Structures are given as C-alpha cells and as structure tokens.
Amino acid sequence: MNKISRPKAAGNRSVDEITGSRRLRRMRKADWSRRLVQENHLTVDDLIWPIFIIDGESRREPIPAMPGVFRLTPDLAVKEAERAARLGIPALATFPNVDMKFRDQTGSHILEADNLINRVTRAIKDAVPEIGVITDVALDPFTTHGHDGILRDGIIVNDETVEQVAAAAVLQAAAGADIIAPSDMMDGRVGAIRDALDANGFSDVAIMSYATKFASAFYGPYREAIGTSGLLKGDKKTYYLDHANSDEAVREAEQDLAEGADMLMVKPGLPYLDIIRRLKDEFQMPTFAYQVSGEYSMIKAAAANGWIDGDKAMMESLLAFKRAGCDGILTYFAPQVAEMLKG
C-alpha cells in the first residue's frame, strides 16, 4: 500500500505569521473576558409582555398552540400585571378574545367604552399604575370575519376603518392606555389616530406603529388565542406587507413617522432581522420587534421534543433582536426571561 505523505503548509508559515499575531480567540478564553467584551446585553428593561384576556372571573384558559400561555379574566390579568411590575417588566400589551355575540361585520364593539379591553386597562392601571399598558386598535378580535378592518363586498375598506380605529384609540386612551399600537396596516391610520388623540386631550399618549407588519405564516397560534383562526375568510395580503419586500417596509415606516408615530415595530421578529437593522439605521428611532406566536411555539415545541435547549434558544433569539438594533421586544417569554435575569 502506498503511503500518503502529509501535505505541507503553504510556505511553512506559523499561525502568528498568517494572522499577523492577531489572535481573535484571546478574548474568548474565559467567561470573565467574554463578559468584558460582550457587545449586546438583554435586560428586563427590554421586555414587553403580551397577554390575552377573556371575560369572566378567576378563569385561566390554556392555549393549546402556545404551551405555557393562557387567556386570563380581568382579575387574573391584574395579578399578572402585579407580577410583571415586581419583576421589573416595563409594559404589558393586551389582546382580547371577545365573545362571538359581540362580533359583527364592522367590529363595532370596539367603540364600546366599557368593552373587555378597556375594562382590563382600567383595572390594571388602578392596581398597578406604574406599569405601561399598550393597546391595539385593529378590528380583528371584534369582527365575524377575522380581518383587521371593515369588510364590504369582499374588500377591506381603508378610510372607514381608519375613522373607526381612530375613535377606538380615543376610548382606549380614556381608559388609561399609555401607548396605542395600531396593527391594522390601513393607510393614514397613524396620522388619524394622532389627530384624534390630540383633539381629545390625549397628546401625551404615544403611538407605537406596527409600521412593518408582514403577511406571515407565523401568526397561526395567535389567531387561535384571540379566537379568529376559524373565522378568517381569504387572507390579509391586500393590507399586510409582502414578506419579499424590504424597500416597501422602509417606505411604510417613513410614512408612519411622518404621520406622528413615536416608535416603530417590526412583526414578525426573527425572520425579519434585516428589516429591524434597516429601520434602525435609516431613522434612528425607538424600534421594537414582536416575537410572534409562531416563533414562540416553535421554540417551545422543539424544546418539548428534546431537540433543542429551550432556555438557551429563548435567550439567544432575544439577544438577536438586540444585536439587530431593537430597543425592546414584545415576547411571550417575558416573565420567564425576567425571572432568569433576576436569578
């Protein structure tokens, strides 16, 4: 058998000669040195906790598609707000699962001052005034068809929807909402909401625009959580962004800022880190990501099957948002992460 000779290194140069003595592993050699040079950090101040709410009392409903996440009655939502405050989580975002008897073609129940979302806001702000409350004015939890706007003759009508969500924003601000976060993606909604808030004495209420909400496959578990998964007729591509488009996302964000948005949001999160980076570089405005239900459930499912370390994947995914330029993250992992950071 012929003996195979060992290949010679090119020019017989040493590693120091090859690298110019720049050994990048030097600062990775120990935990203390890795911590000294870590570029991005995740803290409890980066977390916004989305919670789901239902009518009733002392009731906690599990959401099968989102292990560990529950629909909460107002009294239990208050208890979770108190828990969030103890953990140092800055804000909650509330999303209602509205009884079908209150849903119609136009989502008119959103204009009831004492609807579920407004009652929960008042209850939380009465009990935990120091925590921020973020509310959405999209109509999908209030419609019988699951769309974010008013449906007429098979079309989501823009201007009529804008008028309604602006009126709903005033009611939510009156209930105590600190931030209005319109996710419906109607043209002109941010400016209309800003005008309505200012005209009604709520100029200090901020707007977190879902500036770049993409038509995504990652929303499925959320739709189960708010009770729209079996209602949706057609899709939302006529008003959500095409997930192939990046330049269009920048234009959407630019328009919302011109109309008065105080903050930008990218939704979903991990598949759109490039969008986060572009918006942060372009506008230098407070920029947030929503780690949506599908992202959460994928990590939970893979961890439950023993395929990944769930805690490590959770923390790595959240730190990726910080690396991309996020000032904060809406995540269902918020209380778990806050506990880990505190511990």
TrEMBL record:
Protein name as it appears in the record: Delta-aminolevulinic acid dehydratase
Amino-acid positions noted as binding Mg(2+) in the UniProt annotation, renumbered to this chain: E252
Lineage, uppermost ranks: Bacteria, Pseudomonadati, Pseudomonadota, Alphaproteobacteria, Hyphomicrobiales
Subunit: Homooctamer.
The organism of origin for this protein: Neomesorhizobium albiziae
Pfam family, one: ALAD
EC numbers for this chain: 4.2.1.24
Keyword Lyase: yes
MF (Gene Ontology): porphobilinogen synthase activity; zinc ion binding
GO cellular component, one term: cytosol
GO biological process, one term: protoporphyrinogen IX biosynthetic process
Keyword Manganese in record: no
Residues at the active site: K213, K267
Keywords: Heme biosynthesis, Lyase, Magnesium, Metal-binding, Porphyrin biosynthesis
PANTHER family the UniProt entry points to: DELTA-AMINOLEVULINIC ACID DEHYDRATASE
CDD domains to which the protein is assigned, alphabetical: ALAD_PBGS_aspartate_rich
Record pathway: Porphyrin-containing compound metabolism; protoporphyrin-IX biosynthesis; coproporphyrinogen-III from 5-aminolevulinate: step 1/4
SMART domains to which the protein is assigned, alphabetical: ALAD
UniProt record similarity statement: Belongs to the ALAD family.
Recorded catalytic activity of this chain's protein: 2 5-aminolevulinate = porphobilinogen + 2 H2O + H(+)
